[in-house]
Amino acid sequence: xxxKTICIVDDEEGIVVSLREQLRALRPKWQILGFSNGLxxxxxxxxxxxxxxxxxxAMPDMDGYELFSLVKGHDPALPVIMMTGFGYDPDHVLVRxxxxxxxxxxxxxxxxxxxxxxxxxxxxxxx
Length: 127
Prior knowledge:
Number of strands: 5
Number of domains: 1
CATH topology: Rossmann fold
Number of helices: 5
CATH architecture: 3-Layer(aba) Sandwich
Shape: globular
Radius of gyration: 13 Å
Distance between the termini: 6 Å
CATH superfamily: Response regulator
Strand content: 15-25%
Strand order of the largest sheet: 2-1-3-4-5
């Protein structure tokens, strides 16, 4: 299976760094790109450099729904996984995203091995 490029988007840099390190330890063949805002991540998606997007919901420049919508508008087949630390979604980002086809949400803190299994499933098995 070809190497995959995973994009992590979270305005908390510590989360991006931690997830990137943990994913690299479990799947060294994956290329992990980290972004602290949705706009930079979107540029990589539009350039065709990303195989899967993991995004936080609450971010200042572009929330997870906006990023999800723009990614899906560009490539409906590109997998997106949302993550959130909030049990309550005051802006209904999850509801709107699920209506528009979002399938996967992880609630922080989550087990990184669960995330890896979810990503593997998106690519049809361990990669």
